[in-house]
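[step 3/7] fold_predict: job queued, chain A
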Amino acid sequence: MKVGLGVGATVVAGAVLALALTEFAGARAEAAGRVSAVGPGRAAEAVVRAVGLVAAAGVRRRTGPEAQRDTGPEVAADADIAPRAGARPVADSAAAHAPPGPALGAGPRSQAAEGYAAGAHTQPPLPAPTAYPLGALDHDFTGDGSKPEVRTLGSSWLWQRQSLTIAGTTYAQGASVHARSSVTIDLNRRCTAYDAVAGIDDLGMGLGALRFSVYADGVRLWQSGAVHGGQRAVPVHVPLTGRTTLRLVTEPASPMAVVALGDWAQATISCR
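[step 4/7] structure written:
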């Protein structure tokens, strides 16, 4: 800014001086007659005073509001680029005092989208299975087909009862069968498992031995070894997912098995 003012003042002073010299040369003839009366010193003093007044007027004009229009884009740009010492940029100051905003992607729409995405992968919980006791199942000619039922035709004798005793342990419910037996059950629902304990009822006085097997849709899924009278019951667990029928089979495993009663004690079919 100071360099611009200095150059402008020098140009104006030079122009005024040239104009004054021209007028002075043109008026020499007229002034020649008066020099003798006024004197050469007074004439030179008048010229210098005129040049000083014109130069001062030019300087005042260059420092006014118009100087901002005449400085040009280069000077204005320099003024913006070079802030005064110690000053903080306006943008940095505003950012430092601005309240913290939400993080990118944390707006309501993003939260809703995340909630939707999370919900899209969450399946509703399945209902708890219902346990159907073997000792309380209906037969097909008395049932309504909405839960597991014993198929009457094609099944062996089945004694559904309470308070079965195997090797001195009493169970709340179950079913007793002969040594050679096959009982078919129509599941009629989406069933998941068959659970029981298998053994020889204490009514047989500890005689004989039996082998127990479980089939589903004609496929054997579980089989015990030979279970003897007086022996503790063996646990049974058979998955039934995707199956439609269940078949319980007992077979003699000793010559004295003809007097034995096989027990499916504490037997339940779990279905949804």
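[step 5/7] annotate
The longest strand covers residues 191-200.
The CA atoms of residues 58 and 69 lie 15 Å apart.
exit 0
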